[in-house]
Specification:
Elements: H1 4-9, H2 21-98, H3 100-191
């Protein structure tokens, strides 16, 4: 890519029927100014692009880590559920083998285990719901981050318009107050 300095230092050979040198130099000066602005803007945009790419990589890594954590949590929940079911089945089998005397005690134990199982299911559901909400909040945060970047310029323009409008309203109110005080003075002068 040609740099602004190369444009500035470019010299053309003169020939007998060639272009007018001052016109060429003037035009090159205009091109230099515009090209330099575009060149700087290009560098800034490349820097912004690199920054955004870094942010996306960071959030992708975070998302991958959270997904792995969710998988591990789900496996753990499945293992706890499976263990609770197996324990309940073993207790029920033992209770049936022991006889009528032990059946009442075994039923109480089964009820306790079922309650524990339901509590575990509730805890697993709560954990899963909270974790899912956390993931969604992270995704919303990422969306808001990009929306704020896009809305930043629009908001600055809107804020400037609101400030200008408030100043106009304030000026009008001050003029009206001055006119009212002048009318009060005029009416008091007339009465005197």
């Amino acid at each position: 890519m040609i740099t602004p300095l190369e444009i500035q230092k470019k010299e053309f050979k003169r020939s007998l029927g060639g272009y007018h040198p001052k016109s060429v130099e003037s035009f090159l000066d205009e091109i230099l100014v515009d090209y330099e602005a575009l060149y700087k803007e290009n560098i800034e945009l490349k820097d912004k692009l690199n920054y955004m790419a870094d942010q996306i990589r960071k959030y992708n890594t975070m998302e991958e880590t959270l997904n792995k954590t969710l998988v591990v949590a789900q496996k753990t929940a499945d293992e706890v559920t499976s263990a609770a079911r197996q324990k309940a089945e073993n207790i029920i089998d033992d209770a049936e083998l022991r006889g009528i005397e032990i059946i009442n005690d075994a039923k109480d134990e089964v009820r306790n285990i079922k309650t524990e199982y339901e509590n575990l299911k509730k805890e697993i559901f709560t954990f899963k719901t909270r974790f899912q909400a956390f993931m969604e909040a992270q995704l919303l945060s990422l969306d808001e981050f990009y929306s704020q970047i896009e809305a930043g310029c629009a908001k600055e323009t809107k804020d400037a318009e609101e400030v200008s409008e408030k100043e106009k309203t304030k000026d009008i109110e001050e003029i009206e107050n001055i006119e009212e005080s002048n009318q009060v003075e005029d009416s008091s002068d007339i009465e005197a």
